[in-house]
Amino acid sequence: MLGVLSFLFLCFSWLQTKLIARAQRYSCERYARMNHKQVNQGHADGYLALRRILEICLRLNITCVSVYAFAMENFKRSPDEVAALLDLCQEKLLELCEHGDLLHEYGVRLNVIGRVERFPPDVQVAIDKARNLTKDNKRSILNVCMPYASTDEITCSVETCVQSALETKNFSITEKDIENNLMTTLAGSPPLDIIVRTSGVKRLSDFFLWQSSENVQVQFCSAYWPDFGLFDFIPIILDYQRKVWSL
Q1: Above pLDDT 90, what percent of the chain?
Q2: For 49, what's the count of Cα atoms within 13 Å in the CB-facing half-sphere?
Q3: What are the φ and ψ backbone dihedral angles of 113, each rounded to 5 degrees?
Q4: From the CB of residue 47, how many other CB atoms can be counted at a distance below 10 Å?
Q5: Helices in the chain by DSSP H: which ranges?
Q6: List of residues 6+ apart from 155 with CB closer than 8 A
Q7: How far apart are CA 191 and CA 66, in angstroms?
Q8: Which has the higher per-residue pLDDT, 120 or 26?
Q9: Apex CA 226: angle with CA 3 and CA 222, to 5°?
């Protein structure tokens, strides 16, 4: 078994600068219901899965990973549910700050992508602390998307482009202009290569719609996100590499 894994890791080391994105929120909730757990525990288990998969990605030299942690539409839920999710966000961000060995070992810079100003002040403080802790790391990127919606990201980019056009009197707005003002681009992320959607659901759920519009592989996996592991990940990476080599 060790020889097989060593060979796989050796093969994967050829991959450079790949962005793996996954929408996980509903997957955690379905996982909790299937396993007769509280929804909060499902999200907590999802965080453990993120840490596990992040380390695998970093060992494979995948230098940019994004995770869909909190959707904008979550604010429409009951106040108790929203409060529980925000408490979990704050708790795990502070945990990253206190036990940031993995991020520092692999030189990971943490970006929070989304409308952070909509979060309560204590969550914003935790976000700022995590950002500042990793701001000098240059080797890899972890994008935590919260509160995020791709349609909102595109809208914000277009608004920025229009405002710039009004100020400069240059009313030619190109596709490249919109792309350059996306939150992911402004955060320094490379182009997207793969989206992984877990839990057997086959939709993007308002996640990275612009980024996935061209030359991106979308992979669907039946495993729930908290259960997602190395042997779910291996076929996805091998399939991606096979298609790249066939070009």
Answers
A1: 34
A2: 26
A3: -105, 120
A4: 20
A5: 2-12, 25-34, 39-59, 79-98, 101-105, 121-134, 150-168, 175-180, 183-186, 230-246
A6: none
A7: 12
A8: 120
A9: 80
Q: Write 4-9 long-range contacts (CB < 8 A, 24+).
A: 5/230, 8/234, 9/59, 9/60
203 three-class SS: coil
- pTM of the entire structure? 0.82
Distance CA 156, CA 161 (A): 9
Q: In the numeric block, which tokens belong to residue 119? A: 């979060």
CB 171 within 8 A of CB 165: yes
Residues in the chain: 247
DSSP element (H, E) containing 112: strand 108-113
Q: What is the pLDDT of residues 68-98, one digit of tens each?
A: 888 999 899 889 888 888 888 888 888 777 7
CA distance 45 to 29: 10
Dist CA 98 CA 94 (whole Å): 6
Backbone angles phi, psi at 162, to 5 degrees: -65, -45
